[in-house]
Structure formats: structure tokens, C-alpha cells
Specification:
The chain is an alpha/beta fold. The protein contains eleven helices and twelve strands. The strands form two sheets. Strands 1-3-2-4-11-5-12 form a seven-stranded mixed β-sheet. Strands 8-7-9-6-10 form a five-stranded mixed β-sheet.
């Protein structure tokens, strides 16, 4: 996993109609500048790179984020990776808390998402308004892209199981394309390598080259699986600053940015 220092523009905040003053930290935030190490599920990248930049400006803390799949983040924490904050799907973070890897009582939900479908801008959009319609779209497609479930991406793991549930896993297998190393499912869509791809809406909306068709029908969703939460890592070097960051990311102003990027806050 690559460590990525955050120092980017605030496009999402502008899109949400928010000003810098909306992000002035509340009382109780750590007053001494610290270096905070964060491990986060990659799906939250579009919102976090904007929010963390403003958190740094407001608090003078410095934040470094390691982005990876939830599975990779979980495995890294279990293997003893040093850090201050972990952000991932709620089931995985609950597992870490039970193992004593996350500080008790520090877990906060940041947002919840759904499995979505994206196509290259201007391409035909499949009918995903019903279970039968989506199933027909899968069978009619020449190629479908999603994250390799073996790499631990939440959408990929869930979608592989969903194909089994729909009884089309074998029919779809030969036309499935997984992202190459260093590539994402959304890049497969943007480059026209697949008819449509499966990803989180936040990931799809972050790329202007692709369009969000919509989310899968409610019968095909698991609302508990795609809740993304943050928690303080046990043994964090900067626990006070870590809590301050989580407080900031779960506040009302941050919620507006999370929503503007395609995820329901809280």
C-alpha cells in the first residue's frame, strides 16, 4: 500500500456549497499539531482528499492516508501495521474491535453506500430498475467489470456472491474483466473495456468520463454491509488527534461533502 499525503483542492466542498468557515473545528479538538496516520478503504478517497485537506488547514495537523481495499486494510491492521485511524466497512471494523485492534467506544459511522452500476459517458445504459431487468442486462452484456473479490474489495466480494444468488455466475464468468494491478473497476469503465461496471456510487461519480446508471434494486442490496466507519487504532501514537479527525469527519459540514460525493452520511 502506498502512503498518500493529502494536499489537494476543495472541489467537493464547493459543489456542496460550503465555505471554509463551515469547517472550523469545534472545541475539544487537539490543540498541538500532530502527524496522523490513517488507513482507509479506497472507496472514500473522493470525499477524504477534500475533507482532510481542510482539516489540516484548520488544525495544523498533518494527515497521511494509506488507501486500499477494506480487505487489505483489515489484514494490515491484523498484521500489526502502525497507525492512528482505520476507516473501512463496519463489519470489518467490528471484527477488529472484537480482536482488540480498535479502541473500545471510538467507532463512528461516517456514511453508508450501495452497489452501483456505471457506464462510459454517452454509452447505452442497462435497465437495472428491477431484479429481472438487471439479470437480463448481465446476460446480454458482452463484458462486465468489477473488482477481483480475491483482492478484498467490498463491491467485488459482494457482487461475486450476488451472481451466485442470481444463478448467472457461470454465464457471466467468461465475460468478466477484473482491473489490472494499479487499475480500478471505474477505469475499466472509463477506458471502454467493459459494457458496464460495478462499483460504489462515490467511485463512479468521481470520474467525469463515466456516468452512474443507478444503484441495484433494493432486493439486491445489503444495507448493513456498506456502512463505512472510522475508529482509533489500539496503540495509536496520536490518539487525541485521531479522535479529533474522526469528530471532524462525522460532523455536519463533512456530512454535506460525503453526500455531495455520492454517499449518504452517518
Amino acid at each position: 500500500m502506498n502512503r498518500i499525503p493529502i494536499a489537494v483542492g476543495l472541489f467537493a466542498m464547493s459543489a456542496a456549497g460550503l465555505s471554509f468557515s463551515s469547517f472550523i473545528p469545534a472545541k475539544g479538538f487537539a490543540s498541538t499539531a500532530a502527524e496522523i496516520q490513517v488507513m482507509s478503504a479506497d472507496v472514500l478517497r473522493p470525499a477524504l482528499i477534500n475533507l482532510v485537506a481542510e482539516f489540516e488547514r484548520s488544525t495544523k495537523h498533518k494527515v497521511t492516508i494509506i488507501f486500499a481495499t477494506t480487505g487489505v486494510v483489515r489484514n494490515s491492521v491484523q498484521a500489526g501495521e502502525v497507525g492512528d485511524v482505520a476507516i473501512m466497512q463496519r463489519p470489518a471494523i467490528n471484527e477488529l474491535a472484537q480482536q482488540g485492534k480498535i479502541v473500545a467506544g471510538s467507532i463512528v459511522d461516517l456514511g453508508h453506500s450501495a452497489v452501483g452500476v456505471g457506464v462510459r459517458a454517452g454509452a447505452p445504459k442497462p435497465d437495472i430498475t428491477s431484479v429481472d431487468g438487471f439479470k437480463r442486462a448481465l446476460l446480454a452484456a458482452k463484458s462486465i467489470g468489477y473488482t477481483d473479490p480475491k483482492k478484498g474489495g467490498g463491491s467485488g466480494v459482494y457482487f461475486a456472491l450476488l451472481l451466485e444468488r442470481l444463478g448467472v455466475a457461470e454465464a457471466v464468468k467468461s465475460k468478466t474483466k477484473y482491473p489490472r494491478t494499479g487499475q480500478s473497476a471505474t477505469e475499466l469503465i472509463a477506458e471502454g473495456e467493459v459494457d458496464f461496471g460495478i462499483a460504489q456510487p462515490m467511485e463512479i461519480l468521481a470520474k467525469p468520463e463515466i456516468e452512474l446508471v443507478g444503484v441495484l434494486p433494493s432486493e439486491l442490496q445489503d444495507p448493513k454491509l456498506f456502512v463505512f466507519s472510522a475508529g482509533v487504532l489500539q496503540g495509536a501514537k496520536e490518539p487525541e488527534a485521531a479522535r479529533a479527525l474522526i469528530q471532524f469527519l462525522s460532523g455536519p459540514a463533512a456530512a454535506a461533502v460525503i453526500k455531495a460525493n455520492g454517499m449518504d452520511p452517518g
